[in-house]
Every structure is written in C-alpha cells, then in structure tokens.
C-alpha cells in the first residue's frame, strides 16, 4: 500500500470556507473533502450530487466524490487515516443495535486529517486530535441529547492525488458549482 506522502502536507484551510457556508450551506462533508484535497470549497461542492436538496454526506457519497475527483483512496472501518477524512460517529443509545446503520448515521460528522492533526469546520483551525477531542468533540457531546462519546466510523485514506483535472472537468466550470440563488 502506498500512503500519499512520506512527510505531512501543508495544513490547508480554504480561503472561501465562510463564504461557502453562507452561500451553499456547506457543512462538514464538502468542507472536509475540500480541505483534504487542498481546494476551495466552491470549486468542489458541485461534485456532491443532490447536495442542494439533502445537505448531508454519507460514506458512500464521500467515496463517490473522491472517485469523481480522481483521487485513489483506501477505506477503513474504525480507523483514522494518516491523510484524508474520517467519519466520526457520535455514540449514544442509537448505536446499541445499529452502529453501521441508518439510525446511527444521523449522528455523524466529517473531519479532515493530516498526520496527527485534524481540521473541523467548527474549530476553523487545525488541531491535534487530543485538542479536538477536548474542545470540539466535547461540545458536540454536550449538545447532542444522550450522546456519550465518539468513535471513528470510517476513514478514507488518500493514496494518490490525481496528476491533473479529470477529463472534461474544469476548475471554474459553472455547472459544477451550486447556485447561490435561494
């Protein structure tokens, strides 16, 4: 297996993070993806099919977006990747009989990961996993009724970034961006 980089990549934060949240209601899925591939959110949010209607990104959606974008990935269960994204499962009574099912999926959250650091849109900065756990994760757990903690549900490890943009995909192609009209 070839992991993306031997040395950590730049801890990238898209310049349009707040703008994408305001204009497109971008949340943890598209933002974590953009951070992990080091692109602006507005350049990649159009890859998320039906995002305007559903406003969430499940594990299958995220894998599909990485494939569309042209990145080679490896998925894991219950493991944080070295470079990529992790789907966090907030724990509580909803996982007792359904850790991998639909009911528990309502209590999930995406973060970007690079080496031993993570980026969560709620922190708006890169944090160590321990810092994230004691600040952002602790706040989520406090705010979600009956939440007891967190686990990694899935990890998506970036193996190889694409050499160039996929055929027919232009960075500023207007039809790949969501409409800002509400």
Descriptive report:
Helix content is 31%, strand content 23%. The chain is α+β, with helices and mostly antiparallel strands. It has one domain: Cathepsin B, Chain A, CATH 3.90.70. Strands 1-6-2-3-4-5 form a six-stranded antiparallel sheet. A hairpin with a 2-residue loop joins strand 3 and strand 4. Residues 167-182 have low confidence and may be disordered.
In the CATH hierarchy, the third-tier topology is known as Cathepsin B, Chain A
Radius of gyration from the alpha-carbon trace, in angstroms: 16 Å
The helix/strand class is: alpha+beta
Query: Count of helical segments?
Result: 7
Taken together, the total number of domains comes to 1
Main sheet strand line-up: 1-6-2-3-4-5
The low-confidence runs, each spanning 5 or more residues with pLDDT under 50, are 167-182
Q: SSE order in H/E notation?
A: HHHHHEEHEEEHE
Morphology: globular
Overall number of strands? 6
- Identify the CATH architecture: Alpha-Beta Complex
Q: Helical amount among residues, as a percent range?
A: 25-40%
Please state the average pLDDT score: 86
Cα-to-Cα separation, first versus last residue: 45 Å
What does the main sheet amount to?
A: 6 strands, antiparallel
């Amino acid at each position: 297996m070839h992991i993306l980089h031997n040395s950590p990549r730049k801890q990238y934060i898209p310049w349009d993070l707040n703008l994408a949240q305001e204009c497109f209601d971008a949340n943890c899925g598209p933002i974590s993806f953009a951070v992990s591939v080091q692109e602006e959110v507005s350049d990649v949010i159009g890859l998320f099919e039906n995002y305007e209607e559903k406003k969430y990104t499940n594990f299958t959606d995220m894998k599909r977006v990485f494939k569309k974008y042209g990145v080679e990935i490896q998925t894991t269960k219950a493991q944080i990747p070295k470079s990529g994204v992790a789907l966090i499962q907030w724990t509580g009574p909803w996982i007792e009989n359904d850790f991998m099912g639909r009911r528990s999926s309502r209590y999930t959250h995406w973060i970007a990961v690079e080496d031993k650091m993570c980026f969560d849109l709620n922190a708006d900065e890169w944090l160590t996993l321990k810092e994230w756990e004691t600040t952002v994760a602790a706040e989520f757990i406090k705010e979600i009724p009956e939440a007891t903690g967190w686990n990694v549900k899935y990890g998506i490890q970036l193996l190889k970034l694409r050499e160039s943009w996929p055929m027919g995909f232009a960075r500023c192609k207007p039809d790949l961006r969501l409409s800002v009209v509400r």
